[in-house]
Amino acid sequence: MYSASDNLVTERRAEYLFEEDRSDLFKRVDKLFLVLLYFEWALATVIAFALSPQTWEGPQASVHFHVVEAFLFGGALISLPTIAVIQSSGKTLTRHILAIAQMVMCGLLIQFTDGRIESHFSIFGSLAFLAFYRDWKVLITASLVVALDHFFRGAFWPQSVFGEITTTPWRTVEHTAWVIFEDLFLIPACLQNVQEMRSIAYRQALLEAANISIQRDNEAKMHALVDGAVDGIVTLDEEGMIESLNKAFARMFGYSEKELLGKDAAFLFDSLDLKTLLESSRTVSNSPLEIFMKPRAGSLIPVEISISEVHLNEQTFYTAIIRDISERKEVELRVSEFYSVVSHELRTPLTSIRGALGLVEGGIVGDVSPEVLELITIARSCSDRLIRLINDILDLRKIEAGKIQLRLAPVRLSEIVEKTVAGIDGYSIEKNVSVVTAVDFDANLDVDADRIIQVLTNLLSNAIKFSDPGQTVELKVVHTESECIRVSVIDHGIGMDESEQPKLFTKFQQLDSSDSRKSEGTGLGLAISKALVENHGGTIGFNSKKGAGSEFWFELPMALSQLVPRQATKADPDTASDANIRNSQILPITDSKSNGEENKKRKRKKRAPKSSSSKSRAESVKCRPSVLIIEDDDDTRKIVGAQLRSIDLECIEANNGAVGVEMAQSFMPDLIVLDLGLPQFDGFELVSMLRSEKVGNTALLVYTGRDLTYDERSMLSLGTTKHLTKSTCSMNEFLTSVKELLLIDSSQPEIKANAPGC
Amino acid sequence: MNNIAMISATLAWIGMIVIGTTISATYENRPGDQGYAPTFAVSKHDVEQAKVSKTKFHIIMFVHPKCPCSRASISELRNLMETFPSLKATVFFYKPATAKSGWEKTELWKTASAVENITPQIDIDGQKAKSYRVVTSGEVLLYDASERLVFSGGITGARGHVGDNLGEDTIEKILTKHFNTAGQKFSAPVFGCRIMKDGTQVCSAKSL
Fold this sequence. Notes:
A: alpha/beta; B: 17% strand
């Protein structure tokens, strides 16, 4: 709703806009007329020169008067209009000067054409052109010039204006009447145009007023929104000076708004280079950064900052939205600690259960009846499933939190394949499904071997799970045209409906098979596999048809790998240690497949205890290598001890950090098996203390329920060191690692425990 | 430039326009010098066609071939010849004796040559013009069958202007017997370049 004062403002604005538009119009038409006059001057000079360049007196010639007249008189005629347009364009006098000049030009044209009646149309054309000014007074001036020109010429030189020697004054009156006739149309048109210009200016003023009102409302709303925001919002110029800020920003750092306005914001960013940070917002995607900022009082506060570049009136500004994430960080820390504790507290007893059951199942503690053995097998299998479920949930949590850390290290593709196949061997035997590998080449991969093995194990176990007994699962590795290593797992099982396929890689999805066989598993395996492969920069996918089996594959970019001849793998001493795995599992695709009976035989054979006859280098020095087990959980400690004794090692046990340090110094063991969550000194402190002792170079096997980060692994090292996670490594892997660290030949003695999938 | 200066400049400029326009109009309407043409033709041969012509008159015209103003004179002569098809005319084109061959063959020569009953002739050093006491290009002399001069002057209204004019109007009236030529000699102002610098026994047209 407009008030009277608003109306007055609008009217003044309308008048201003009208005058401004009119002035622009005058200036524009002034320039047009000046151009026209110059054109006419040049044309007159050229025509005069072309038609009568010289005048003669006998044999002598001189420049013709017409040329001189056209050039000099024409030049004099346009001199004042030129000055007027340059100095006073848009002014009233300028318009009238231009009108006079134009009409004189018309008079000269009529004179030079001997008063031809056609040339009189130039007058009408010029009047119409002058109407562009939308100023009727200009038309009056122009008409007056025409009338005077006709009057004087008609009186003294009638031929120059009417083309006749003699004429009457009425001829002048007649011509003037025609000019007035045209004016009668042009003047009302000018007045109407002016009225329309006023109307347009008024509407524009109204529109501007409405826009200003809306803009003010929006600004007020925006101001309220910005000031009410929980996050701090600040605008900086190119130099990092604070242009504007909201209350939350000032509050966050303990300053008043006045104290911060116009200041260099660099002091808030602690040691960070603000300009580099601002520059980076141009090149890096606008994703938030987590940094520390410096408040007026207290310690640095963690914040999440999003910076965006804004261009306004040819100036560059940066808008930063800053969120205090202190609480979030604290919660994350607590959650992380919680997961750490939970993982440790769950995995430790489960590992003990599995280990104990494995020992009984493996016959370490003596023969048991077949009925008891079957029950033990069921219990061990269930503990495996439980461990897998916990591992999957913890993995998923890490993936979702973006905290999964890949431990990239060079590893041979063949090694990954062999370890995976070896790991799945028990399960394939149990399900009576053969696993056939076809690897045409080997490659050095720069990947997290454990994670890739986890992915491949998941695909293989799924393939086995959905295959019928007696069927074959193929594992193929090829080099694709797109410079990738493609690992495919092909089964000939039940396959999938197209309707089921889209949800395959989503969490907690388990596809029901048509034969109503309920598959065991968490439904997280493929989701985790997908995340792991993508974290490696690879892709994962599948092809499946109902009743015709499935092919699951993943590709890793060649940038991560380097092709090497297949023979090189065979000659590699590092990978040649596990000859048993290689000989039994890495087969050409055309080789004979192991059938179910053979698998069962192998399984029985592996379960039979075997006496140790190791002649390793360690044994040549010492009769029995000694291992110090530092583990606070009594059950785990006992089971680990039993396992180590089963391969003829001498075990010393410590149930806390202090005892562990004392025993390490006293007994000088060959290997220390260390848990981390210990009373008195934890694992980190213990390692730190031992590092400076004589036992500083002792082999160390960190065996913990926690998932260690890269930094933590670096901190936990003595001599030759290996890190194993209790729930994810099998007992086989544990014992193999122990023997590696003690430099005992892995093929001797055979590991007594058997825990497929452990 | 302030307002007063601008207004003063404008007034001066308007004055300049008035003066310039006046000079221009004056120049256009100022006749050239005109001499006393001989009452009888200098050479019978020049006007012999008058006797055989149905009109019983013969026109002699003197033209400077490079005079732009004479374009209008030739044009008016052509109109006259078209109006009176039996009228004969001889046009003498001035040519300096030292000029190269073809100097006189200008657009005016070609226009005149193209008109029936006009005979263009070269007038070396203006000897013929001198003999007829003609000094201004475009001057026409009209002789009757008795070789007597009945009209002398121009046939354009102003310098280089085509259209109604006193000379052509007079000739038409003589040829259509509207004017009695017995014992009378008519004249009109002539507009054009000077055929030669030093005309002999020239007197102004105003004195006629």
